[in-house]
Amino acid sequence: QTLPLTVFDPPTINMLRSCLRNDRTFGVLASWSDGRNTTINNIGTTAEIYEYLPDEGSAGFRVKAKARQRFRMLDSKSNQWKARVRILPEIKLPDPLKAVQLQSLNRHRTSPAQHLRWRRADAAVTRWPAFVYDQYNVDKLVAGIKKELSVFSHGQKDKEKEKAPVKVIIPDDPTELSFWIAQNVPMKEEHRLLLLRLNSPIQRLRWELRALQQCR
User: Fold this and answer.
1) Which long-range contacts does 8-13 make (Cβ < 8 Å, 24+ apart)?
2) 8-state DSSP, 89
3) Nearest-CA neighbor of 198 among 169, 170, 165, 175?
4) What contacts 115, CB < 8 A, 6 or more positions away?
5) DSSP per residue, 97-116
6) CB 203: neighbour CB atoms within 10 A?
7) What pLDDT shows up at residue 38?
8) For 78-125, how does the pLDDT look when each residue is reduced to its tens digit (9 = 90+)?
9) Is 195 helix (H, G, I), strand (E, B) or coil?
10) Per-residue pLDDT tens over the stretch 19-73
11) Same domain, 82 and 107
């Protein structure tokens, strides 16, 4: 995800300038405010600066950064701009039926219908029916989320016919989609934090799909 930042605070500007002189990478901690108090959590992401405007002036110091790796802050140094962190893994689970597939049947998996047919046959040699494995199939999760989003978009079009259309690009990559949903779909901040703590895109997509279905 892209993080556009406009900074006016001199210490933060100095920190960003230091990053630009080195590896252009800094850390962003998840936080939210209720209007009176600001809560800062120990979960965040590294961000790599790829564009910036050095002229501060009244417009502030503007940078664009790309979120790279999630981390958990272990402890902060006496200097508030430095901390010891642990990079969190991004676990991509394989298809659970891959191990029982007969390679000799792969030539028949040439269309979605055939793939579904033989997927059911693969599941038949296990102790669970196919629909159990489908709940963890990343392609089905992505398709399910896009279907739910299309329902919401059609509803918005009916309400906003007079407004100019806005083109929204939804990622196809499961990992990017899971973070895109967490960033763009309205939800409680504690739910966003929960999603950031999950180490697998399948876990995040399953939670997000269930949440979207409950919002119908």
Assistant:
1) 8/60, 8/61, 11/81, 13/56, 13/61
2) P
3) 175
4) 109
5) TGGG--GGGGGG--SHHHHH
6) 16
7) 79
8) 666 788 899 999 999 888 888 888 778 788 878 777 777 888 888 888
9) helix
10) 899 899 999 888 877 777 778 888 999 999 999 887 666 667 888 999 999 999 9
11) no
Assigned domain for 126 exists: yes
Cα–Cα distance for residue pair 96/103, rounded to 1 Å: 15
Same domain, yes or no, for 110 and 195?
yes
Question: What is d(CA 20, CA 166) in angstroms, rounded to the nearest whole number?
Answer: 34
Please enumerate in sequence order all residues whose Cβ is within 8 A of that of 91, keeping only pairs 6 or more positions apart, or say none: 199, 200
Question: Among residues 61, 87, 113, which one ends one of the domains?
Answer: 87
Query: pLDDT tens digit string along 150-190?
Result: 876 655 545 544 555 556 788 999 999 999 999 889 898 88
Number of structural domains found in the chain: 2
DSSP percent split of the chain into helix, strand, coil, nearest 5:
45, 25, 30
My answer on whether 53 and 134 are in the same domain is no
CA torsion, ordered 148, 150, 152, 155, to nearest 10 deg: -140
Calpha distance 90→73 (Å, rounded): 17
Query: Which helix (H) or strand (E) is 187 found in, with range?
Result: none
* Start-to-end CA span in the chain (Å): 26
Closest CA to 15 of 86, 87, 85, 63: 63
Q: Which domain holds residue 8?
A: 2-87
Q: Letter for the amino acid at 206? A: R
- Does residue 193 sit within a domain? yes
Same domain, 12 and 79: yes
